[in-house]
Write a structure and sequence with these properties.
By secondary structure, the chain is an alpha+beta fold. The chain has one domain (about 40-220): Catalase core domain (Catalase HpII,  Chain A, domain 1). The chain contains five helices and ten strands. It has helices spanning about 10-30, 60-65, 160-170, 200-205, 220-240, and strands spanning about 40-50, 65-75, 90-95, 105-110, 130, 135-140, 140-150, 175-180, 185-195, 220. An eight-stranded antiparallel beta barrel has the order 1-2-3-4-5-7-8-9. β3 (about 90-95) and β4 form a beta hairpin. The longest helix is centred in the N-terminal third of the chain and has 23 residues, at about 10-30. The chain is globular and about 45 Å long.
Length: about 250
């Protein structure tokens, strides 16, 4: 009888890989003395208004049911490049829902077309398409979320300084949208940006784009796994939890 073939201990290998990635992210965060990803940014109190999903529902109550939520927003540059130089721009939206755990939506500058929504693309201006890059799963369905420019909103400009100026002058808005892998973006709500948070509040914010999700959603794919470990390491090095920070202010 031939000897049984040994199978590699996949969970242990996966655990080792997670430890290595998380440890490397923590070390780089300590070296940088700040956020590992998107270190330069501005944070604001905000409000999220959900209108509801046009067409077929997503099956995620937070997206399908009309509602109004207190939120915290952070706009950032990825590298970061100076001033108005092109960069992969980031938008983080923490929705403070009534369910206890917040919803952390992190999106990066990308193209609007289906074949471009999976790619982070550098650009100058903060108004434009921001996509989740990686998809979410609701059962067997795949969903992408995005923040799109609102043509009727004040322009956010091409630098973190102009973003701050726009928030002081008015209440800038971005449109929230959902899409399938190949379908068009379907608007479901809006984010309204309010008062700027101070530097201490900005530094205290720590997002968890994999753990802080509505119960019906889960992040999918290898990039989601990598993102999870990277953010874990960065938060650990900063001494922050996945729900650290967030505005208690009432905005618009």
């Amino acid at each position: 009888m031939p000897a049984p073939t040994a199978t590699p201990p996949a969970p242990r290998v996966t655990g080792r890989a997670a430890t290595v990635v998380e440890g490397a992210a923590a070390a780089l965060t300590r070296l940088r003395r700040g956020r590992l990803l998107h270190p330069a940014g501005r944070s604001f109190a905000a409000e999220v208004m959900i209108w509801g999903t046009p067409g077929p529902p997503t099956g995620v109550s937070l997206l399908d049911d009309p509602g109004r939520y207190r939120a915290t927003v952070r706009l950032s540059k990825g590298v970061p490049t100076p001033g108005s130089w092109p960069d992969v721009l980031g938008l983080a939206v923490r929705v403070h829902s009534d369910a206890g755990r917040p919803f952390d939506l992190l999106v990066s500058s990308s193209g609007a077309a289906p074949f471009l929504r999976n790619l982070p693309l550098p650009r100058r201006r903060f108004a434009g398409t921001y996509s989740t890059i990686t998809c979410y799963r609701r059962g067997r369905r795949r969903l992408w979320l995005a923040a799109l420019a609102d043509p009727e909103s004040i322009d956010l400009g091409d630098s973190l300084a102009t973003v701050t100026e726009a928030a002081r002058a008015d209440a800038p808005r971005l449109v929230l949208a959902v899409a399938s892998a190949v379908g068009p973006w379907r608007p479901i709500g809006q984010v309204t940006i309010g008062a700027q948070l101070d530097a201490r509040q900005d530094a205290a914010l720590a997002f968890d784009p994999v753990g802080n999700l509505p119960p019906e959603l889960r992040a999918a794919g290898p990039l989601a796994w990598l993102r999870d470990q990277t953010y874990r390491g960065s938060r650990r090095a900063r001494g922050a939890a996945g729900q650290s920070g967030g505005s208690e202010a009432t905005t618009v």
